Amino acid sequence: MSFFSKMSGGKQSPPMVSLSEITWSWIGAFLGITPLAFLNYNLFQGHDPVFIIGSFGASAVLIYGAVKSPLAQPRNLVGGHMVSAVIGVIAYKLFYPFPWFASAIAVATAIAVMHATKTLHPPGGATALIAVIGSEKIHDLGFLYVFVPVGAGAMIMLIVALVVNNIAKSRRYPEFWF
Question: What is this structure's pTM?
Answer without folding.
Answer: 0.93
